[in-house]
Amino acid sequence: MDDIYFSKPSKNKGHNSQQNRGNGQRPPKGDNIDISSGRKSSHKNKFLRSIIAIVLVIVIIFCGGYGYIYNMMVKINYNETGHKDNVYVSEGELSYNNKVQNILLIGVDRRVSDESSRSDTMLLLSIDRANQKIKFTSFMRDLWVDIPDSGYAKLNAACTYGGAQLVMDTIEYNFNIRIDNYIMVDFEVFTQIVDKLGGVDVEVTEKESDYMGSSVKENGKLLDVPAGERVHLDGIQALWYCRIRKLDSDFMRTYRQRKVMTALFEKVKDARITELKDLATDILPSIETDLSPKALTRLSIGFVFSYIRYDVEQARIPADKSWKSATKKGQSVLLADLDKNKTFLEDFLYSEDKDVEDESTTAS
After folding, report:
1. Which of 111, 122, 211, 294 is in Cβ range 3.0-4.6 Å of 139 for a Cys bridge?
2. In terms of residue numbers, what domain contains 326?
3. Is the dihedral of CA 229, 235, 236, 241 positive or negative?
């Protein structure tokens, strides 16, 4: 392994305007537009009235849909007190891009009493409108990080110490990436989502199949999951597939989680509107988020009209060749090179694709 030098995030270290993306000036709108007066013909008036009528119909339909979606979103467990500003690192130090929205998905297992508030899964969902991509980034729960006001511990302990807010603060503090919002669910909701969408299809290796068939019990019965390139999993099977850890490593575990999330996203693409409506009605009350009903409504409409057609990419923190194993306080942990991972994460989330004409460095 290469030599690795570990650095603690500095509260005084900022990014310049190029590193801290999104600080550019908005180009003036409407420049060099010359509106000339001319003769008005009845033909032109009819054409304009037709266009206006069509626009009004679209607006009425859209507003009706907006109101319907909004009425569903008010059922969600909206955390009005979050998202608070991170008091441990200044906003100017965090790397961001106005064309990318970062939403941290936090999965907790409330069925396990001694780890009821530990975040078992931390997955960053990034909606990259500049490159038209959905990006999933796993943060390994065994990362040894500086949790503000609590000292060094595993990353998943942040949720125990201070809930979703401290998880976001900790990731921002250690990796200098701005997180805009969070959504927190427990695993029972995850199984409901998978089942409501009719299950997911993922590749299952022989080792994974053997492990679940010999080591994983649900309601007293071992899970019978076959191996194959395209294996159909129901909610319970998908949950345990995501949670496999002792078979190999936590790296493979987060890889399986991203595989299932990608499969779910593809399933949503093919779902009927009625299926999505039923899904939202059932699971929204069980989700906690700092996204307001209005923000969730806009996000939902964005998915329906745009994001659902985006390509999907995946990544993991720590990145390859940027970490080493260690034992801290009797725990097996991952020591990451923070500088390398900051660079990797910023590049993965914000770099402009060569074949995409991007305006993402322009403030909006």
Report:
1. 122
2. 46-197+271-350
3. positive
